[in-house]
Specification:
The chain is mostly beta strands and 316 residues long. The protein is built from 2 helices and 26 strands. It has a single domain, classed as Neuraminidase. The relative contact order is 0.16.
């Protein structure tokens, strides 16, 4: 891609934040429980300089946060309060997480695949096709306690040259998959979403959460998990005019999700219990820090954080 074509996020209609630049979130009355989590702590801007920040993933043994800057085809890292490039080019990586050995697992728009990267930046392709047909552009990813890799596959990375390389869809749909890297077994989990996007699980791994960002949908859904099958689809919330993009659960089963220019929090009963406003359109969030109580927030051009009186699910 010709880097000279890249202009600021608020001037580029291709940027996911562009049409929301003059919009603001509605007010939400925060519950007492949510206020206990936030404890009057303030949102801090750590870094600014991306075009569409996405996919934050915290690597505990390195005390490092990794995230993607998709249009700039690079990944960034935060170590000891300092930000630098982690990988450039990144092959348009989007969503990231870690496996149970704390390798980085990434969704590559450019490679139309799932990558695994170790501490020495050795990168391998774990899976890049469904029945011999290329994936669309894997978007977001979650690794469960049995090492299964769950990921979504909308076409955003092949629609234009802004977040990947223009290409054709090779299978009929946009699926949610799970992949067992030990058995090298790929399974289709969900077929009926228009644009499956963010994905995570509840802290007990009994529920799967998936966002659909298809035109005029913008919903977050819950599914019951049984033998790696997603059952009993239930709508948690309609985020229109914004959308739920990426999200994480805390150790008590609350869902912290991007929601326009904010993070919204839902309790395990899917009641909205609070909101943290952010100055820019939010894409994703991640729990990190030595104690797992720092919520890192990727939002268009910037990385933000807020200290919470709560820990992420994987720090329980």
């Amino acid at each position: 891609m010709n880097k000279s074509k890249l202009i600021s996020a608020d001037q580029d209609p291709r940027n996911p934040s562009y049409k929301f630049k003059d919009m603001e979130n509605e007010e939400v009355e925060n519950s007492n429980k949510f206020n206990e989590y936030v404890n009057k702590n303030k949102v801090i801007k750590i870094f600014s300089g991306t075009l569409w920040a996405e996919g934050p993933a915290f690597i505990p043994h390195l005390n490092t946060l990794i995230w993607s800057d998709i249009p700039n085809n690079r990944m960034m890292k935060l170590v000891d309060g300092k930000v630098s490039e982690y990988k450039n080019p990144s092959n348009y990586c989007n969503g990231n997480t870690i496996d149970n050995s704390e390798n980085l697992i990434s969704c590559s728009h450019g490679g139309r695949c799932i990558y695994k990267t170790d501490d020495n930046l050795n990168t391998e392709i774990l899976i890049d096709n469904y029945l011999g047909k290329k994936f669309n552009s894997p978007n977001d990813v979650y690794v469960d306690s049995d090492d299964n890799i769950w990921f979504t596959d909308p076409p955003y990375g092949i629609l234009t040259d802004y977040e990947g390389y223009p290409g054709e869809q090779e299978y009929d749909g946009c699926y949610v998959f799970s992949y067992n890297p030990h058995l090298k077994e790929l399974n289709v989990v969900i077929k009926d979403l228009v644009r499956p996007n963010g994905i995570t699980m509840s802290s007990d791994e009994k529920k799967l959460y998936v966002a659909d960002t298809g035109e005029n949908i913008k919903h977050l859904y819950s599914y019951d998990l049984n033998d790696r099958k997603a059952l009993n689809k239930k709508k948690i919330y309609d985020f229109k005019p914004f959308f739920s993009d990426g999200f994480r659960c805390d150790k008590d089963g609350n869902i912290w999700t991007s929601a326009g220019k904010a993070i919204k929090c839902f309790n395990p009963s899917f009641d909205l219990i609070g909101q943290i406003k952010i100055p820019e359109l939010v894409s994703n969030c991640e729990f990190g820090g030595p104690d797992g109580n720092i919520l890192f927030i990727t939002a268009t051009t910037s990385l933000y954080s807020i200290e919470l009186n709560q820990q992420g699910a994987k720090f329980d």
